[in-house]
Amino acid sequence: MRAPTARRFLGCGVLVLSLALPTTAPAAADDGPTAAVPPRPLTLVTLAGAGTAAGRADAEDLLARQDAVLATVGAEPVYRWTTALNGFAADLSPAQVSILDDQPGVATVEPDTVRPLAGRTSMAAIRGAADSRRLRGGAGVVVGVVDSGIAPGSPAFADVPGLGADPRGFTGTCSEGEGWSTSDCTRKVVGARWFVDGFGADRIRSSESLSALDVLGHGTQVSSVAAGNAAVSVRVDDRDAGSFGGVAPQARIAAYKACWGAPDPADDGCSTADVVAAVDAAVADGVDVLSLALAGGERIDTLQLALLGAAEADVVVVGAAGNAAGSAYAAHAGPWVTTVGSAVGRMSRGRLALPGGRSWTGGGRPTPVEGRAVRAQDAPAPGVTRRDAGQCRPGALDSRRVADRIVVCRRGGIGRIDKSGAVAQAGGRAMVLVNQRPGSVTADFHSVPTVHLAATAGRQFARWVARHPDARVRMSRVDGDPGNRRTAPWSASGDPRGASLKPDAVADGDAVLGALPETTGRTWGVFSGSSAATAEAAGLAALLRAERPGWSAARVRSLLVTSARPVRGSSVLQQGAGALPGRVPTAHLVLDVDASDWRRALRTNTLADLNTSSVLLTAGRTSAVRTVTNVGSRAEYFSVTARGFTSHRVSVRPLAVRLAPGQSADFTVTVSGPQPSGRLDDGQVVWLGARGGVTRVPVALTR
User: Fold this and answer.
1) Is the dihedral of CA 152, 155, 158, 164 positive or negative?
2) What is the mean pLDDT of residues 321-340?
3) Dihedral (C-alpha) 172, 178, 181, 187: value to the nearest 10 degrees?
């Protein structure tokens, strides 16, 4: 029986996150509803000044200051933070909170919130072939993953030969718990900790584990995409599905479990108190890259202040923009976080070709098939309605009519994977899955070769099949084209009145393959959304940190973001600099920010003046100054242009510079044109290096 705790979630003011969780099994019978009246949440208190990560404070001094504040309200802390943040979490009454309002040295006071998990995941989908050609990269780097834990038994995290140099300076621990022992930490999974006092140990579902063990699957997916082992064989439903490798396969992983499953999956989520505690621990442990595949709110709150401390400790912090386009701005407003949105369009596609050349494409990874097609509703088994047959329900198809045919099934009623199983059971050769209304298409692991068509294309194809029952159809696979990438319609856009331009970039968030815990029912699956994009960005940051071990986190962040390529049809408030590269960038210019500058600019409200890798000019601002530095090994000539602006004249001076290695130069972006109208005009300042590098600085004009 779980030990009782008074730490519960706040029933109001909940923030929506971008965590993309796999579909979980139904709650067990003893997973009853939570209490009718939830206890009050913890209160998060941040004191003025930085934590020890900034190098300007002593932990004992910070604890003494916290003790003085706690004494004024007569409270005991649940969490205390001294590394990334100077603060604590405590169970405080409204009267105690009001006392804090008058206390000197108290910077912020906010209630804890449990941030819900917004699922965009399939247990069995895949964006295409699982084959990964990257076999090396990331050696010596530790990626900290604040999420729902990790499944150490997955081959993606095995202690395999070839991991390269061990990380230096990492001091993390391996905390034991339910289903987790110290032996679960290896040279690959080098640290594991868990934090539950904010969420409440008495609020988790019975299948949860009070340890770093992942039972939801999201943390395992994120960790595997960022830093899973290379050349791992993937099998789904006893079928070979290629091989898998994370973006930085030699990097190590430290799991910080701060996201939990509740009896009602709708209540799954991450307590801010637990997340902040995880961030504080990860910074103290010495991670090199920190991944938070959860949206962090649209303002500078307690979590963002903790991530500021991580940046001051020279950690590359990567956060998800969120999946709430139209209802919330991109998360992680602090410019010290690399905020990543989602791009779609690289999913493997399937093609249906008719005699005469007409064709349709949709989601899929089918092996080549040629044969006659039949609509499922035209082949019902005896006693089965046309509706049930059309949805390809198990046992609903007449094997005499579908044997060796390409079966056209309607979406709905049951799971997509179950439909292909029913087709296979009836002897069908392949399946065409047809949407009945506007919606996404996927590339699933199916029992038979499958192409998933959107509603309009599906209706056209189904009508053709009805008129040509004896004609032969050819099904084939078309690899995804990087040039077809677009910003996902659900990826959150940046605040046009924000302190900095968000998101910083986008990455693939379209059916990204990752490992899963066996408790989810499968060992592989895909997830979509800014969670998947964040995992890819974290892996790229690990690659870059391994290749440039002497570089600051700010330089890594700048080179990564400014090497992105714009995607068509999206503003910079939707895509930032564009889609992140698929490999380590080769450009030689960076925009550097000293770690001490972040907090000073926050205090003086001058974040827009920092040397960030983007420019956001709001009302009253007509110019911005940035500084570029040559990080190459030779002197190089760089020229600059302004591109993409439609209603303003944007000039950059100087037009060209010659920089020796390590040398820097200022440049000024000046805007002239119509009076402020509140309408967005955007483009990029593009630096071209004589040695071939391209550095893109996105500019948004919201004057």
Assistant:
1) negative
2) 88
3) -50
